[in-house]
Recover the amino acids of this structure.
């Protein structure tokens, strides 16, 4: 099957998807997935075969898993000019970002993608590539909004005195007490057991405060 692509229209697209090249032999590979053992991939396999898939890779796996064995297999066998086909987008990706990342990786390798139930998601056509470029732009805009809102929220929280990160394991009084005990000759392990913390936590207290504590202890003596 050969497709005529308007090169003037494809030139302006920024997404990494490519038209099928006439010099490349196209093979369609299908990927089918169900989430539980009680479901069957038979319907998906039949649909993919009917749409022209030469081979269908199928598996039972949650869409949230990133280490799907059959998906990894089909991604390895795909060659430039081939097409990966699914019955629905949620069979391949668990989120918009996941979908765009996968399509970007396929486009880098000059591999097409089609979803039978989502006709707009077809990177072998100029129209499909345009829609995916718009989708990628919307996703990027959404990420920027989230990043901006998160940054503003952190600034407001800091202005209210909120401290980020893990809370300290020792109170200021405990830290001063531990340093005094170290200055008196106790080991880090003995001091750490008293406060139920690791010896490294006590070790980190020694710099830069221990010198001042030792000096004060000696002055008091």
């Amino acid at each position: 099957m050969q497709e005529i692509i308007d090169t003037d229209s494809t030139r302006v697209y920024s997404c990494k998807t490519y038209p099928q090249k006439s010099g490349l032999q196209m093979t369609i590979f299908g990927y089918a997935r169900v989430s539980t053992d009680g479901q069957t991939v038979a319907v998906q396999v039949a649909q993919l075969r009917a749409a022209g898939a030469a081979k269908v890779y199928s598996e039972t796996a949650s869409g949230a898993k990133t280490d799907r064995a059959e998906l990894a297999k089909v991604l390895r066998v795909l060659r430039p000019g081939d097409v990966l086909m699914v019955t629905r987008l949620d069979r391949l990706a668990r989120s918009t970002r996941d979908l765009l990342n996968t399509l970007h990786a396929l486009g880098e390798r000059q591999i097409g993608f089609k979803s039978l139930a989502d006709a707009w998601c077809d990177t072998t056509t100029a129209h499909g590539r345009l829609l995916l470029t718009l989708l990628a732009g919307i996703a990027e805009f959404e990420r920027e909004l989230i990043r901006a809102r998160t940054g503003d929220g952190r600034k407001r929280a800091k202005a209210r005195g909120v401290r980020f990160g893990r809370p300290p394991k020792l109170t200021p009084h405990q830290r001063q007490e531990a340093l005094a005990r170290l200055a008196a000759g106790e080991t880090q392990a003995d001091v750490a057991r008293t406060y139920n913390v690791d010896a490294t936590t006590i070790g980190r207290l020694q710099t830069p405060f221990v010198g001042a504590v030792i000096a004060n202890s000696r002055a008091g003596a």
